[in-house]
Amino acid sequence: MTTYIAAYDTEAESCLDGVRRIVEVHEKHEMPATFFIVARLLDEQAGEYRALLADNPLFEIACHTYTHMLVRDHHLCGPAGPADQYPRELLESKKRIEDVFGRAVTGFRTPCGFPDGLKGAPRILELLQQGGYSYSSSLAWGPWWTLPALILESFRYEEQGYPDIWEIPPCGWMENVLKGHNPKEAWPLQLFPHPFPEAMRAAPVQTVAEEVELNRLFIDKACRMGVGHVSLIWHPWSLHRFDPDTSMLDRTFAYVHELGLKTRTFEQHCEVLTSHGCTTTTGESCHSERSEESEAVRKDGDPSASS
Length: 307
Ligand SMILES: [Zn+2]
Prior knowledge:
Elements: E1 3-10, H1 15-29, E2 33-37, H2 42-54, E3 59-63, H3 86-101, E4 107-108, H4 122-130, E5 135-136, E6 155-157, E7 162-167, E8 171-174, H5 175-178, H6 208-225, E9 229-230, E10 232-233, H7 236-242, H8 247-259, E11 262-264, H9 266-275, H10 287-300
Parallel strand pairs: 1-2, 1-9, 1-11, 2-3, 4-5, 5-7, 8-10
Antiparallel strand pairs: 6-7
Zinc ion (ZN) is lined by residues 9, 11, 64, 68, 111.
């Protein structure tokens, strides 16, 4: 059975208003979430974020670097920042977030994401291991820097020499790009022919209904494929600008519950992957988890077990 994971790249001062509303919707739906936070935001907003997120067991706090500096060259977002800053971006940031929230951080997401995750970034993987991270969620583009990102299984960075670090990729459009909120970027390239043509778009979305429909397409497709998880790429500042009532989240979470999907944070999902001893390295299916989970569900008589 596919697990749904809600997550937010929390990267700018203007995210705070969005996060206030996001927290309300998550509490209403009892929906877990992972907040990938840029540590620098805590210089000014630590009290607000602690009050919103620290004591709620629904929420995981993960790391989105210290300053949102790029840690690899990015085809669209620009060149990587200086390598001597990487320890600050990956290690000091983690420590800072842990100090503010009083709990361990186990996950990391790079700014902007990459089509191969961190496969070509040995120094970043080395720092993740050094920092005691368990997972990255940084494979956020389709092949050849296209969008939307494809629906992929989790994998370990085993071939790169880091078998204890998982990549748990998000999928779909970056919703800020989908809404034309990043004006410096041209409309992104899309694969052609596309393996998922229904998800292609000729122009930014204009309405919440269009966005909800796209979300449903990705969730439905992930369930049909039988992948272990599905997680879309969201940014509080951009969500709030487009949809201040946060009705997109409300409708998307209602749909997730209607389908009867499991819901987890990235950290919880990583713990399940690890405990099932999956050894896939290249994005193949995590068979042991899927078969054991669907077996358990069948015993419970859940009709969605066959979806
Ligand atoms: Zn970001």
